[in-house]
Amino acid sequence: MRSILLLIFIFSSSILISKIIYFPDETSPTIVLRFQFFTGSQDDPPSKKGLANLVANLIVEGGTKKLTFSEVQKELWPLAASIYVIVDKESTTFVGEVHKDNFDKFYKIFKDLLLSPRFDKEDFFRVKKKIINYLENDLKSADDEDLGKEILQWLIYKDTPFEHPVVGLKENLENINLLDVQAFYKEMYKFSNLKIGIGGPINLNKAKKIEKDFAKLKAELFFPKKDFEIKKPKGKNLYLIKKNSMASAISIGFPVDINRSNPDFIPLMVAISYFGEHRTFNGVLMNKMREERGLNYGDYAYAEHFIQDGGTTFAIPNIPRKAQYFSIWIRPVANENALFSIKMALYELKKLVEGEIEEKSFQETVNFLRGYSKLWVQTLSRRLGYLMDSDTYGYSDFIEEIDKRLKDIKIEEVKEVIKKYLDWNNLYIVIITPEAEKIKKILELEIPTPIVYQTPSTPCKTLEEDKIYENFELKPEKIEILKAEELFIK
Amino acid sequence: MKFLILFLFVCLNMFADIKLPFQIYKKNLENGLTVVAVPLNSPNIIAFYTVVRAGSRNEVEEGKSGYAHFFEHMMFRGTKNYSSEEYNKILKNMGADSNAYTTDDFTCYHIVAPKENLEKIFEIESDRFINLNYSKEVFQKEAGAILGEYRKSASNPFFALFEKMHDTAYEVHTYKHTTMGFLKDILAMPENYDYSIEFYKRHYRPDNIAVIVAGDLKLEEVFQLAQKYFGKFEGKADIKKVEEEPIQKKQKSTEIIWENPTLPFLFIGFHGPKFESENIENVALEAIAEISFGEISPLYEEIINKTQVADFLEAFWEFHRDPYLFYIILRLNDKEKISEVKEKIFDTLENLMEKGVSGEELEKIKSRKLYSFLSSLNTPSRVSNVLAEFFALSGDFNSLEKYINLYKKLNNETIKNVAKKYLSKENSTVVILYQKENL
Questions:
Q1: Which of B4, B296, B375 sits opposite A80 (nearest CB)?
Q2: Contact call for A364 and B93, based on CB within 8 A
Q3: What is the strand order of the sheet B97-102 is part of?
C-alpha cells in the first residue's frame, strides 16, 4: 500500500479548514482531481428545490468567464479529458481526469470552471431544461427502478432537508433564475467547505499550488447543517405508484441510526452482504427469489445510500451522508407476484433480525468482504474517492479498516448489530405498478397471493416453502395510491 | 491497490508506430484453445477472462433468438463436480468480482480476484466449460430470470428504439434482434431445453474460445495451468452460417407510439461494414461519429447549445463481426421539429460527403483517440476486456494494435469516401418514437 499524504491547511480561524488528500502515484497514466464541496440538495432554499444540482451542473456545462461552453468543449475534446459532477444531499464533488501529458492545459480549464464560472443565460436555460427533462421523462417515466428508490428516500427523509430528490421538484426548478444560481454559488462554494483530492503522477509542490489557487474562494465561516431527526415509520407503510409498465418494481426501506463512522457499521455490512450483496449470487434474497424461483433479475440489500459506478458492481465514492437508510431492491417482477415477492423479502428479513444466520455462510461472507473490498479501489480515481470518504467518516483508510475489523469478527457481534439497527415490521414499501388499485383491493380483502410461476418445474421443497411466504402477514398500517406523473412537482 | 501499466513501449509521437502499453504472450493448446497472458504491475490482483466467439448473431434458427444470452446464465448453473452453490461459494470465499455479459458477437465470462486463487479459478472455470450439467428444471427456472431482465428494461424508450431499429433495418441477418432476443422467443424459452444443449455443443468448444489472464502473474504458471485444466477440453465448434444481409436499396422508416410521458426521439441507422483489423472504414466511421455529431460539431453547437431544439445528440459506431449499423440518436424538445432536424442531419452528411472534415479536426480526433485509449487501460480487468473484444471480433489479438495504428492513416479522402459509401439516405432506417396523444 502506497503511503498517503494527508495535508491539513489551517488558516486564521480554526474553523476555516480545507483539506488536501494527496495520493501521489508516478505509475498512473492519468492525473485525477476530486473536489468535494460540502454543500448539496439539503442546502436548497425553500421553493427552489434542485438549485444545488442545477448550480453544479451549470458549472460543469456552462463555460468560464474567458471561454464559452463550446470553447471549453473544443479545448477538452482532443485531450480526451473528462469532467463530471456528483451531487448528493450534503456534498457536491467535481471529478476531473486527464492523461498526464495534458494536465496543465486541462487544469487551467478545470480551475476556471470552478473558480470563474460563466453562468451565461443561454447555458442556464439549456441546463435547467435538461434537468427538468430528466426528472419528467427519465426518472418519472423511463426508469421504474430508480423512481422506486427515489420515492423510498422521499418517504424515509420526510420533513427533513434530505426529503426532496437531489434533482429537484419540477415547479421549483421552473422558478429558479440565474440570480438564484449566482447567489447559491457565492454563498456555498467556499474554501472552508472544500476537500481537495489529487492523485497520480503529480508532485507535492504542484498539489500545493492547486490548493493555493482555490484559496481564492471565500474563506469565511462555514457552518454545516445541523443534524436533524428522522421520524421512524410505524408499521408497514405501502405506497402504490400507478404507472404504465410491464412489471412491478419494488423498493423497501427505513432510516437507520448509523453511518460508516460508527464502529457498528462494518459488522452491519457483513449482515447486509449475507442478506443481499449487490449484483452477486451471494445473498439470501438473490438465491431464494431469483435462483430458486426465477421471480426476476435480481434482489439486493444495502446498509447505506448506494449508486452503482458505471459498468462495475461497486458503489460510487463521495456520496457521504450523516443520515443513512437500509433498503431492499427487488427488481421488476410480474405484477401478480408483487405481493408474494414483498412477503418473501420481509419473511427473510424477519429471519435475519431474529438471528437466523448460518455460521458457515457467515464466515464465507466475512471472507468475501475482506477480499472484495480491496477490489473497490482498483482505479486511481476510486482510490482517491475512497480516501476522501475515509477522511470524512474519520478513518485513515476505510478499506484497511474493513480488513482489520473483519479479521476476528464473531457471528455474535453481527447478530447484535442486526438486532440494534434492523427491523422487519416498521418500514416503507414502494411498488411502481400498473395494478395499484388491484393490489390495494387484494390487501384490503385479504385475498391470498400465491406465487404465480412464470416457468414450469418447481421442486416440492420450494413449493412447500412458498406456502410459508404466502401466509406471511403483510398487514400494512397504511396503503396509499399515488400517480407517478403527479410526484415531485412542488 | 493500484496498477502500473508498462509504458515502456508507448510512444505518443503521431508518426511513430503506436505500441500497446503491455506485452501479450500467447499460446495455442493442441485442442485449439487460445491462451493469453498479460503481465501487469497490479499487486496481488489478476483478471481471468474467458471469451466465447458466440453471440446473438449465431442464433440462426427461427424462434431461437436470445439463446447466447440465456446460455450465459446457464453457465452459472453447475457441473457434475461443482453445483452452482458450490461454485458461488468458492468465488465468495475468494472475495472475487465475477460476472459475465453477452453481445451480438461474443460472450465473455470474467473474474477478478487475489492472485493466489489463480489455480482454483483455472479449475472451476475449465470445469464449467467442459462439464456443464444442468437439469431441465433449473433451465426452466432460469428462463424466469431472463424474462425479468427483459422486464427491467421495458420501460425505457431507448430499449424499444433499439429493438425496433434492428427489426426494421435488417431483413434476414440475425442482427435483426437484440442480444436479449424477441419477447415471443423469450416467453417460449422454457420449452427449449434441448436447443440450449445444442447451442452449447456448437459453440462452447476449445477452438472457439480464448482464455485471457492479466495482472500480477507468472507466465509459465499461466500456460502450465491452462494445459493442466483446459487441455482435456475436447471437440470442434460447429458454427452455422449466418445469412448475409442484402444491400438496402431505399430508405426505411417506422415509428413507436409510447404509452408513458416522453420527449420525442429520432433514431437513424445506416448499414455499415464489418470489422476487419486492416479496414480503415471502421476507424473512419468512428471518427465521423465524433467529429460530425459529437460535442465539438457545428450540428451539436446549433441544436444542443444554441437553439436547444434537442437535449441529446449522439452518433456511434461499434465494431462487429458482420456489417452493422452506424447510429445517430437524438431526443428533441418538440415533436414538431423532427422533420427539420432530420433534414439537418442529412444535410450534415451530404456536406461531409462533399467536403469531408478539416485537417485540424482530423488531428484532434487522432489525439483524442490515442489519449482515451491509453488512459483507459488502467486495470487488469480493462486490459482483459479490450483484448477479449478484439479477439472475439477478429480471432487475432494483434488486431487491437492494428486498429489504433489505423488512425495514423486516416485522411479526409477516406472520410468522404466512407460517408458516400455508407451514410446515404437510401441506406438508412429512421425510427421515430413519440408520446401517445392525450395520455
A1: B375
A2: yes
A3: B25-28, B34-39, B209-215, B45-52, B107-114, B97-102
Q: Which residues of B touch A97 (CB under 8 A)?
A: 375
Nearest to A129 among B76, B155, B311 (CB): B311
> What confidence tens digit (pLDDT) does each residue in A62-80 have?
999 999 999 999 999 999 9
Helices A359-375, A265-276: crossing angle, 10 deg rounding: 110
Those residues whose C-beta lies under 8 Å from the C-beta of residue B210, and which sit 6 or more positions away, are: B33, B34, B35, B36, B50, B51, B388, B391
Chain B hits for A291, CB-CB cut-off 8 Å, are 84, 141
CB pairs under 8 A between A and B: 223
Given a cut of 90, is residue B14 above it in pLDDT? no
Q: Which chain A positions have a beta carbon within 8 Å of B306's beta carbon?
A: 122
B52-60 mean pLDDT: 97
A253 three-class SS:
strand
Mutate to test the interface with A, among B41, B97, B302 (most CBs of A within 10 A): B97
Closest-CA residue to A289 (of A337, A336, A238) = A337
Q: What three-state secondary structure class fits A326?
A: strand
Residue numbers in A near B113 (CB within 8 A):
371
Label residue B198 exposed, middle or buried (CB < 10 Å: 0-12, 13-18, 19+): middle
Asked if A142's CB is within 8 angstroms of B260's CB, the reply is yes
Question: How would you class A376 by CB atoms within 10 Å of its CB: exposed for 0-12, middle for 13-18, buried for 19 or more?
Answer: buried
Say how far apart CA A333 and CA B148 lie, in whole Å. Answer: 6
pTM of the predicted protein model: 0.94
Q: Provide the total of helices (H) and of strands (E) in chain A, helices listed first.
A: 17, 12
Q: What is the pLDDT of residues A188-226, one digit of tens each?
A: 999 989 999 999 999 999 999 999 999 988 776 666 677
Give the integer Cα–Cα distance in Å for B393 and A456.
37
For helices A103-115 and A69-76, the axis angle rounded to 10 degrees is 160
| ipTM confidence | 0.93
- Helix, strand or coil, per DSSP, at residue A319: coil
- Per-residue confidence (pLDDT) for residue A19, from 0 to 100: 84
Min Cα distance A14 → chain B (Å) is 34
Contacts of B293 in chain A (CB under 8 A): none
Residues in chain A: 490
Three-state SS string over chain B comes to CCCECCCCCCCCCCCCCCCCCCCCEEEECCCCCEEEEEECECCCEEEEEEEECCCHHHCCCCCCCCHHHHHHHHCCCCECCCCHHHHHHHHHHHCCEEEEEECCCCEEEEEEEEHHHHHHHHHHHHHHHHHECCCHHHHHHHHHHHHHHHHHHCCCHHHHHHHHHHHHHCCCCHHHCCCCCCHHHHHCHHHCHHHHHHHHHHHCCHHHEEEEEEECCCHHHHHHHHHHHHCCCCCCCCCCCCCCCCCCCCCEEEEEEECCCCCCEEEEEEECCCCCCCCHHHHHHHHHHHHHHCCCCHHHHHHHHHCCCEEEEEEECCCCCCCCEEEEEEEECCHHHHHHHHHHHHHHHHHHHHHCCCHHHHHHHHHHHHHHHHHHCCCHHHHHHHHHHHHHHHCCCCHHHHHHHHHHHCCHHHHHHHHHHHCCHHHEEEEEEEECCCC
Say if the Cβ atoms of A331 and B144 lie within 8 Å: no
Rounded Cα gap, residues A299 and A301, in angstroms:
7
Nearest to B97 among A77, A98, A375 (CB): A375
Task: Examine the pLDDT at A1 and tell me if it is beyond 90.
Answer: no
Of B144, B261, B296, the CB nearest to A295: B144
pLDDT of the residue at A385: 98
